[in-house]
Amino acid sequence: MKRASFILILMFLGLQVSAQYQLKIAKLKYGGGGDWYANKTALPNLINFANQQLNTQINPKEEVVEVGSSDLFLYPYVYLTGHGNVVFTDKESENLRNYLIGGGFLHIDDNYGLDNFIRLEMKKVFPSLEFVELPFNHPIYHQKFNFNSGLPKIHEHDGKPAQGFGLIYEGRLVCYYSYESDLGNGWEDQQIYNDPYPIRLEALRMGANIISFCFSNY
């Protein structure tokens, strides 16, 4: 599907729903036995924050979409998280590739233990592309909120720095991969991890930047 066609579909859908909530975002459901459903309160909290801070009108309900579903094209932003195994079939890889080429945006958020699996599966989606670390001056770090040192560190695991990687297709960032950061954990309800408010705020601000970048570039 061409990018222009994808945008026309989004415009059409915007006319079919209520004026109050014209956009929806979704969590990506994948096979392989990994916990795709992790961070149950994360997206609703991020949506609420983005609607308040960015004046977006995202539907407050978290949607779930399967990798191989045609419904994937209904969402400008999809979120993939988990701790372990991820498997895409050939058909799912093709569907995800068409979605991303057509203007969609995938945010992969390593919830610790995802890295080895997701890199292999994304090679099925874009065999010729490699994840590249984004420089700190990349626009995704400078939307409403400035992150002059790049991706914030939310949770500590192996003493590694937080890193933001991207897949760039024909000059456009189609996939952002937050690694060793745990943004989604920072978006969760406060009582789940008991993170201090300033840490949670950093996570939410970075999440809002990703949403803002996505919506301004599809």
Euclidean distance between termini CA atoms: 14 Å
CATH topology: Rossmann fold
Percent of residues in β-strands? 15-25%
Model regions low in confidence, pLDDT < 50 over at least 5 residues? 11-20
- Rough outline: globular
**Corresponding CATH architecture:** 3-Layer(aba) Sandwich
Kindly provide the radius of gyration, computed on alpha-carbon positions and rounded to a whole number of angstroms. Answer: 16 Å
**Whole-number mean pLDDT:** 91
* CATH homologous superfamily (4th level) name: Domain of unknown function DUF4159
Widest sheet: strand ordering = 2-1-3-4-7-6-5
- What's the total count of β strands? 7
The CATH class is Alpha Beta
Structural class: alpha/beta
Helix coverage percent: 25-40%
Strand count, sense and barrel status of the largest sheet are: 7 strands, mixed
Total of DSSP H or I helical runs spanning 4+ residues: 7
Q: State the domain count.
A: 1
Structure report:
The protein has helices spanning 3-16, 42-53, 90-101, 115-125, 183-187, 190-193, 197-215; strands at residues 26-29, 63-66, 77-82, 105-110, 132-133, 163-169, 172-179. It is α/β, with parallel strands linked by helices. The protein has a single domain, classed as Domain of unknown function DUF4159 (Rossmann fold). It has a seven-stranded mixed sheet with strand order 2-1-3-4-7-6-5. Helix 3 links the parallel strand 3 (77-82) and strand 4 (105-110). Residues 11-20 have low confidence and may be disordered.
